Amino acid sequence: MALKMVKGSIDRMFDKNLQDLVRGIRNHKEDEAKYISQCIDEIKQELKQDNIAVKANAVCKLTYLQMLGYDISWAAFNIIEVMSASKFTFKRIGYLAASQSFHEGTDVIMLTTNQIRKDLSSPSQYDTGVALTGLSCFVTPDLARDLANDIMTLMSHTKPYIRKKAVLIMYKVFLKYPESLRPAFPRLKEKLEDPDPGVQSAAVNVICELARRNPKNYLSLAPLFFKLMTSSTNNWVLIKIIKLFGALTPLEPRLGKKLIEPLTNLIHSVGAGRGADRAVSAVLISLSSGMPNHSASIQVRPARAGASPPLKYLGLLAMSKILKTHPKSVQSHKDLILQCLDDKDESIRLRALDLLYGMVSKKNLMEIVKKLMTHVDKAEGTTYRDELLTKIIDICSQSNYQYITNFEWYISILVELTRLEGTRHGHLIAAQMLDVAIRVKAIRKFAVSQMSSLLDSAHLLASSTQRNGICEVLYAAAWICGEFSEHLQEPHHTLEAMLRPKVTTLPGHIQAVYVQNVVKLYASILQQKEQAGEAEGAQAVTQLMVDRLPQFVQSADLEVQERASCILQLVKHIQKLQAKDVPVAEEVSALFAGELNPVAPKAQKKVPVPEGLDLDAWINEPLSDSESEDERPRAVFHEEEQRRPKHRPSEADEEELARRREARKQEQANNPFYIKSSPSPQKRYQDTPGVEHIPVVQIDLSVPLKVPGLPMSDQYVKLEEERRHQQKLEKDKRRKKRKEKERKGKRRHGSLPTESDEDIAPAQQVDIVTEEMPENALPSDEDDKDPNDPYRALDIDLDKPLADSEKLPIQKHRNAETSKSPEKEDVPVAEKKSKKPKKKEKKHKEKGRDKEKKKEKEKKWSESPHCPSPVSLQEEVDVNAVTASKDECEDTKMEAQGEEDDAEGQEQDKVRLLPRGLWRHKKEKEERSKGRKKSKKQPPGSGEVAGEAAQEPVHNGAPEEEPLPPESSYSLLAENSYIKMTCDVRGSLQEDSQVTVAIVLENRSSSVLKGMELSVLDSLNARMTRPQGSSVHDGVPVPFQLPPGVSNEAQFVFTIQSIVMAQKLKGTLSFIAKNDEGATQEKLDFRLHFSCSSYLITTPCYSDAFAKLLESGDLSMSSVKVDGIRMSFQNLLAKICFHHHFSVVERVDSCASMYSRSIQGHHVCLLVKKGENSVSVDGKCSDSTLLSNLLEEMKVTLAKC
Amino acid sequence: MIQAILVFNNHGKPRLVRFYQRFPEEIQQQIVRETFHLVLKRDDNICNFLEGGSLIGGSDYKLIYRHYATLYFVFCVDSSESELGILDLIQVFVETLDKCFENVCELDLIFHMDKVHYILQEVVMGGMVLETNMNEIVAQIEAQNRLEKSEGQGLG
C-alpha cells in the first residue's frame, strides 16, 4: 500500500511540468508561499532521480521560481547535470537555468569548463549556440581564460549563426580576461568585413563597446568604419558606428570635418519613417560631441516643436551634448527649454533641467532660479523636487559661484530651500551655507543674521520629522552663528535659542556643533559685556550656561557628552573667576582666536615632498648638518605667533606684512607638515584699503531681513533689475574706472567673464576666497580615476604587434594536474590574476605612450588614413613575432597541440568533470585538415615561425609554486647535440586501433635542420601509417624545417593490432644540419614506447552506468598494492588520471572508483583505496591481460609517489 | 549594453526577468517592483524613456519601456545604446513573440516563460543586441523547435 502511494506520488511528480506549476501557483493565490515550498520539495525529489528528463523538467520549474524571487543556487549542481545532457532539449533548459542563476560566486561553475568546451565544438550548431548564449551570462575570469581560444576558433565557424554569437561573446571574454584582447583583436577586426550582416553587426557592436571606454586605442579603425558607414544599410550598424565616431571625434578633430558630408547625406537619404528618426537623432546626438554643427541644433528645434514625446526627449538630450561645445546655439532656445520644465513628463523635465545648468549666465541666473523655485513649490513627488533642489544648488555654485552677482540673494534662496519638506538634501544646503559664509567674507554679516533667525525657528525644521534630513541645515546655522558671532545683532537671543531643551532632540552630530558654538557665542558675549562694563550681565550669561549645559552632559551621544562636560567645567571655572571680579573675556575669546580658512578637499594629498627631504632617511641621525631641521620646530611657533588675531586692525603695516609673508613662505617651503598657503592674491586685494573704485550699492537696508518665512529672494530679482538699470546709466561714466580695475587683475578666481557678463558688475564687493592648496601642489588627475573600473583593464594598445607571450591559453592536460583541493588553490590563482592584468596593462600603456609620441611626430594618419603606422625599432626586432601573430589566428588549432607539450607553468586548478578525451579527437581531426590547408595557403617559411610561436610556453596566470611538480605528458624520446625529441602517445576513439604519436622536435644547435625523416621499424603488432605508395622501409618526412632554437611538433599515426600489451618500436630520425660551414647528414635513434595506458582514453562515466558495468559480471579482476605512499589521495588520483587517462567516477573519503576506456572499447574500472601509507588498486576489465599490464604500469607510477 | 530586460503586467507581476549583471534574487525583485512603480505612474502618451531607477547602475542608465495591452516591456540600458533603437528592438521582440505564439497574449508568456527566454536569447545575448532581423530570429527559433521535436520523437 505504502509502496503504491510512493509510486503514485512519483507519477504525479512526473506529470507536473512548468505549466502545471504555473497553474498551481495561480490556483493557490492565498497560500502561494506554502504551495511553492511544497513544489520545491517535490522538485528536490525529482532532482534525485536518475532520469535526465525528470531532472530537466525540475530545473525548468526552478527557473520559473527563480523569476519569482526564489534562490535556486542550491540546485547549481543539478543544473550542470542537465546542461551536460546529450539532448538539445534538456541542454537548453540547463543552460537557461544556469544563465539565470550562475554568477562568479557560484562554486560549481568551474566544473562546467569541459562541458562547455565540448558543447562549443559540438557538430550541432544549436548546441554550440546554446552554450555560447549561456556562457555569455555567467562567464567568469577562469572560464574566459580557459575558453577564450575555443571561442576564438568559433569566430571563423562556417555557420554565421555561430560566428555572430562567438563574436559577441568575445566582449564578455575581454572584460573578464583582458589579456585576450590583443591576440583576438585581429580576428575581430576581420569580422567587421564578414559577408554576413549579422556577424558584421556583432563585430561593430563589440568594437563600439570597447571603444566607448577607451576610444583612443581604436582611432586606427576609423577608416574602416568610415567605409562601413558609407556602405552599410543596416540601421543598427549605422547607429553604432555613428556613436563610435561620436567618441572618436574629440580625439581626432580632423575626423569631424571628414564626417560632415557623409552624415549630411545620411540625414537626407534616410527619408521618413521609424528608422529615419532613429538614425537622425542618433546622428545628431553623436555628431554634436565635437564638430562644427550649428546645423544640427537647428534641426533639433523643429524636431522638438513637432513633439512626439520621445523625439522631444531626444532633442533635449541632443541639445545637452551640443551645449558642451556650442553653448551659444543652445542658449537661444531658452524659451523652449523653460517651457519643457512645465511638461507633464518627468523625463523631459529632468532633461530640461540638465540643460539649464549649462545655460545660465550672470544675466539670467536669478530669473532661471526664480522659475525653478516656483517649480519646487509646485512639484509633487520627492524625487523630482530633490532633483530640482540639487539642480538649483548646482547651477548656482557652478565654477566657483561664477554666475552669482549677489550673494545675499543666494543665501536667501538657500534659506527658502530649507522650508522644503521631506527633502533628502539638507546636508547639501548646509554645505552650501558653510561654503558661502566662509568664502565670501562680505556676506558674513548677512549670513549670520539669516542663520540666527533659522536657529530661532529651529523648532519648525526639527519638528517636521527628523529623518527628512533638513535639520542638517541647523548644523551649518549653528556653526556660522558661533564662528562669526561678532556679526550677531542679538547674540544673547541666539544663545538662548541654541540652549533650548528642544535642541537635545536633534541628531548627535548637530548637538555637538551646537555645544561647541555655544561657547564661541558665549565668549563673544562675554567680551562685549566686559567691554561695556556690565559685570552683572556677564555673570548672568555665565549662569545661563551653567544652567543649560547639563542637559547636554546627559546626552547619549558620546561626542556631545564629552564636549559638554568639558565646557561645563570651563564655564564653572569662569564663574568662579567672575565672582572674584577677574576679567576673563580676553582669555576666553582667545580660545577661539584665529580664522579658519577653507582648505581644498585634496590639499593634504597634494602636498609635495620638498626637495631635499628624504622620507626614508633616519629620523634620529645626528643633527650635525641640519640647519633646516633645527628650524623646523621653531617654524611651528613662528606660525602661531603670526596667526592673525580675529579683530586684526586693518591698517596693518604693509611693509611688515610683506616681510612676514616672505619669511613664512620660506618656512613653509621647508615644512612638510604645512598645508596652509600664503594669502592668495585675491585676499591681498581685499586687504588693501582702496575700495573707492568698486561700485558698492547699499541694498541690505531695504530688505526686511528679520522676517523668516517670507520668500525674500524675489525681491532681489526686482532689486537686481533696478540696479542693472542704474548701472547701465552709469556705465559710461564708469568705463574709465573699470578699465583701471581690470588692469589690476581679475577679482574672481576662475571666472572668465563672457561678453554678456561684462555688463553686470556684482552687487557687492564679493571676495570668493579660494580653497587653499599647498604651494606648488602636484597637479594630478589620478584621483579622478576609479581603480576598480573594469574597463580600465581593457585600455590596451591594439596596434602594437603581438608578443610571443601574449597568447590565449590553450587546453592542456590540466585534469592530470589536479592535485590539491580546489578550495585551497582558488586563492592564489585569483590573487595572481588580479595582479597580472595590472602589470600588463602598465606595460602596454608605456609602450602605447611611446607609440603615440611617434605618431604625433609623424602626423601621417589624418592625411592618408590607410597609411600604416611607422615601423618602430622595436617592431623590427619583433619581426618574428609579427609574423607569428599574424599566423596565429589561423593556427590556433595548431597551437592547441603545440602547447600541450608545455606543461610547466600551467595553472592547475579545477577538477575537470569531463576529461579531455571527448573533445580531443575532434580537435585532432580538424587540425589535420587545417594543417593541410595551411601548407597550401602559406608561403614557405612562415610555417616554421608559426610553429615556433606555437611552441612557446604560455605563462599567463601560471602560479609560481605548485603543490604537485608540473608534469608533462610528453616524455623524452631521444636527444643529441642537434635535436631533442619528446613525444606523447594519444589514443583516438574515432578510428579504431589507431594512436597518434605527437613528437616535438626541438633544434638545439645553431644550424638549420631540414630534410627530417622519421623511419620506424614496424612490428607485427604496430604499423606506422605512411603516405600512399611508399614502402615499409621508407621514412615519413617531417613537414617542416627547424631554424636554430626552434621547436615544432609533428604527428604520426600508428595502427595497432592488439592493445593488450605494451610494446616498443625502434626508429630513426634522419636530418640534414645546415649552417654556414656546410651541411651534414645526421641521425638519431629512438625507441618509441607504447604503454597500455596510452591506449586508454579518458572517458567520463556516470555512477549508475559504472555500477551496471561492474554488475554485468563479464569483467575479469586483478589487483595490486603499493606501500610507502605519502602523497595525498587527491594528488594520487590526479596522477592516475593524468598518466593513465582515467576519470574519477565517484569518490568517498579515501576510496575512489575510476573509469577509462581503451581505443578498442575495453572498459576498465578501478577501485582505488588508500590505507595509512599504502594504496591498493583493484581493477576490472574486459581483458585480463590488458588489466594486468595496466596495473603493472600503474604500480610503477605509484611507486614513485 | 543592456543591463536588464523586464516584462511585467499591469499589476507588477513579473513575466520575464532577465538580468545581464548579477543581482541576488531579493534585489532583483526589488528592482522589478521599483521599476514597476516608476513606469506605472507615467501616462501612456508621454515619452518612453525614464531616468532615475536607483537600484540599477546609476546616472548612466536609462529605462526604456513600451506598454502593450496588459504588459510592460522594460529594457534598462546604458548610454551606449540608442534610445529609439531600443524602442525598435522591443517592437521586434514583441512582434517575434507574436509570430512564434500566434497572436501572443499575456497567458502565453505566463505558461511558456522558458520559450520566451529562448526567443529573447536569439535577440539579445549577454546584454548585447544579437539580431534585429525578425525573419532571421524566427527562422532560428523554428529550426530549434524542429530539433526539439525530432528529439522528442526519438524519445518515443
TrEMBL record, chain A:
Keyword hit for Heme: no
One Pfam family hit: Mu_AP3
Membrane protein topology class: Peripheral membrane protein
Gene3D superfamilies assigned: Leucine-rich Repeat Variant, Longin domain
Location of the region described as Disordered in the Swiss-Prot/TrEMBL record: 621-688, 717-968
Swiss-Prot/TrEMBL keywords: Acetylation, Coiled coil, Cytoplasm, Golgi apparatus, Membrane, Phosphoprotein, Protein transport, Repeat, Transport
Superkingdom per UniProt: Eukaryota
The keyword 4Fe-4S belongs to this UniProt entry's keyword annotation: no
Annotated Basic and acidic residues bias: 631-667, 717-732, 787-832, 847-863, 885-896
Subcellular locations according to the entry: Cytoplasm; Golgi apparatus membrane
A cellular component term, taken from the record's GO annotations: axon cytoplasm
Regions of compositional bias (Acidic residues) in chain numbering: 769-786, 897-906
GO terms for biological process, alphabetical: anterograde synaptic vesicle transport; Golgi to vacuole transport; neurotransmitter receptor transport, postsynaptic endosome to lysosome; protein targeting to vacuole; synaptic vesicle budding from endosome; synaptic vesicle membrane organization
Ranges where the AP-3 complex subunit delta domain occurs: 652-799
Basic residues bias locations: 733-750, 833-846
Function: Part of the AP-3 complex, an adaptor-related complex which is not clathrin-associated. The complex is associated with the Golgi region as well as more peripheral structures. It facilitates the budding of vesicles from the Golgi membrane and may be directly involved in trafficking to lysosomes. Involved in process of CD8+ T-cell and NK cell degranulation. In concert with the BLOC-1 complex, AP-3 is required to target cargos into vesicles assembled at cell bodies for delivery into neurites and nerve terminals.
Homology family: Belongs to the adaptor complexes large subunit family.
Protein name per UniProt: AP-3 complex subunit delta-1
Species for this entry: Aotus nancymaae (Ma's night monkey)
From TrEMBL, chain B:
GO CC, one annotated term: AP-3 adaptor complex
Record organism: Nomascus leucogenys
Location of this chain's protein in the cell: Cytoplasmic vesicle membrane; Golgi apparatus
Membership in a protein family: Belongs to the adaptor complexes small subunit family.
Gene3D superfamilies: 3.30.450.60
Signal peptide (residue range): none
Membrane topology of the entry: Peripheral membrane protein
Protein name: AP complex subunit sigma
GO terms for biological process, alphabetical: Golgi to vacuole transport; intracellular protein transport
Assembly notes: Adaptor protein complex 3 (AP-3) is a heterotetramer composed of two large adaptins (delta-type subunit AP3D1 and beta-type subunit AP3B1 or AP3B2), a medium adaptin (mu-type subunit AP3M1 or AP3M2) and a small adaptin (sigma-type subunit APS1 or AP3S2). Interacts with AGAP1. AP-3 associates with the BLOC-1 complex.
InterPro entries assigned: AP_complex_ssu, AP_mu_sigma_su, APS3, Clathrin_sm-chain_CS, Longin-like_dom_sf
Source taxon at top rank: Eukaryota
Residue ranges of every copy of the AP complex mu/sigma subunit domain listed in the record: 1-147
Keywords: Cytoplasmic vesicle, Golgi apparatus, Membrane, Protein transport, Transport
Organism classification: Eukaryota, Metazoa, Chordata, Craniata, Vertebrata
Function of the molecule: Part of the AP-3 complex, an adaptor-related complex which is not clathrin-associated. The complex is associated with the Golgi region as well as more peripheral structures. It facilitates the budding of vesicles from the Golgi membrane and may be directly involved in trafficking to lysosomes. In concert with the BLOC-1 complex, AP-3 is required to target cargos into vesicles assembled at cell bodies for delivery into neurites and nerve terminals.
